[in-house]
Amino acid sequence: MREALFIKKNKERWERLQNAPPTDADDMAKDFIRLVDDLAYAKTFYASSKITQFINSLAARFYLNIYQNRKEESSRLIAFWKYDLPLTIYSHYKIIVFTFILFAVFFAVGFFSAQNDEMFVRQVLGNGYVDMTEKNIAEGNPFGVYQSGSPFLTWMGIMINNIIVSFMYFVKGIFFGILTISSIVKEAIRIGAFEQFFFARGMGLQSVLTVFIHGTLEIAAIIFAGAAGIVMGTSFLFPGTHTRLNALKTGTKDGVKMVIGLVPIFILAAFFEGYVTRHYKMPMVISISILLISMLFLIGYFIIYPIRLSRRLASGKNQEVIG
Questions:
Q1: In terms of domains, do 72 and 102 share one?
Q2: pTM of structure
Q3: CA-to-CA distance for 108 and 254, rounded, in angstroms?
Q4: What is the pLDDT of residue 320?
Q5: pLDDT < 50 positions in the chain
Q6: Domain count, the chain
């Protein structure tokens, strides 16, 4: 193809890209690919031509725009974990504390109810699970349930299930937080009864060191997911100076942030349950180390960091622009 025909055929498109480049990421990517093809053709047949230099500069501009967009998306992701989520957690710390206390109280209810009534455990956990566990205990493998199945499939299955459950806790909050509170109460009672089942058989410490390898992160995430649902539900009941609709929108947005922020926690907790908990007979120091690291992370990121960040911003010492 002659150079003049090549230019005539593509001139209108090049001018459009130069004067009114697309803003949509998909359109930008498609146009960039076409420009790269044009540049390759021009370099092959018109290597020393000015049109080759023009296409090269236009393609370079598109490349920079794509790179900057990706960088901006990355910056937003960093800002979410560094600012948005911690500040959202801090702004709703009273509800989070309430949810934690609620869970702790009904955990104790489940624990002591099971202690005073052996049938309570079967009512909560089901006869099948109790019979299976008693059989495992008799065989000297009390936590054998965690050794069944493929580690990878166990990880994936538990991760997906827990993420779905956390979103359900949140969605139930739309009914003024009542159904979310009910779910938290039931889960706390179930876990309390579960723990008492092993304490009653002299395996309390072993149960804590086994179950809480994954349970530390998992239970904390459940509490935060419940808090997210309550945040949404109570925002409508107690709108403050906002209209109820605007308060509900804000509460929903904050709740979504909290639930999304829990996804990595559920992924890690499920990984521990699939790959690590099955080796519960590992040296005690390893189990304790995992528990301590998990607790330090939760306390550091979800309690200490939000408080320090909020105080730093309030004092005006932090001059960063938060996007």
A1: no
A2: 0.74
A3: 30
A4: 39
A5: 317-323
A6: 2
